[in-house]
Amino acid sequence: MSSQQPAAEEGEDAISTAMSGSGEGTYDSDQELPHLPADPPFDLNNFPFTFEHTSDTSRSMHIEPDSDPSKSPSYEWDGESITSSITAYREENGRTYHAYSDGSYHYPNDSVELERLDWQYICLKRLFNGKNYFAPWSQEQPPKRVLDLATGTGMWAIEMAEEFESSMVVGTDLSPIQPEYVPPNVHFYIHDARLDEWWWLDPFDYIHVREIFPSPKLA
Question: At a CB cut-off of 8 Å and minimum separation 6, what does 187 contact?
């Protein structure tokens, strides 16, 4: 004996009843679902991007320059600074995870994840209409020093170094997962931006960071 179900209302309630009910309310693949109005298409090309700075005119902010930028510490670049403890990745459920500051970042660092990061970068760049930055940099006014925190596979840092050949670009990450052959003006360090001491005494003209939601303390 089957129980009679109340008549569903139009729209979303009708869809919910058809897909989740049993017996007489079971969804029939040959039955047409009620038409729901679709959202209007989102035109990214004409989206009014605005980057406006608002401040309280009653307050002023002054940043003191470094007392002696010439005393910046010298560090060994790239692979020369990598130790065996950094590459002793933790393995779990068939995936590998960073060893430096183990546990501070919850995503893997294996080849599958690197491919995902590269595709993520490609998608974001397309979303930004091919732009890597929205700051007013140009070949006539290039940034002299650029820092990319949580650089990942280093694609953003590498492209910035290629675009601004006179700039020095630094990328930091928990894992040495960046390419071996890169432009001479880009360098990568192992560094935890959340916990490690701020190394850099020379000021940066541009500091870039994106997609850091797995690291809430940095966000």
Answer: 77, 78, 168, 169, 170, 171
Closest CA to 171 of 126, 123, 121: 121
Structural domain contains residue 103: yes
Instruction: Measure the CA–CA gap between 93 and 87, rounded to whole angstroms.
Output: 18
Query: Could you tell me which of 105, 116, 110, 115 has the C-alpha nearest to residue 173?
Result: 105
The three-state secondary structure class of 206 is: strand
Distance CA 28, CA 19 (A): 9
Cα radius of gyration rounded to whole Å, the chain: 25
Instruction: Render pLDDT for 48-71 as a digit per residue (tens, 0 to 9).
Output: 444 333 333 333 333 344 444 333
Instruction: Tell me whether residue 179 is in a domain.
Output: yes
Nearest Cα to Cα of residue 100 among 111, 115, 84: 84
Residue 133's domain is classified under what CATH number?
Answer: 3.40.50
The β-bridge relationship of strands 145-148 and 168-173 is parallel
Element (H, E) at 139: none
Q: Is residue 176 part of a domain?
A: yes
The predicted model scores a pTM of 0.61
Domain containing 99 equals 84-208
For 61-101, the DSSP string reads ---PPPS-GGGPPP---GGGG--HHHH--EEETTEEE--TT
Total count of domains within the chain? 1
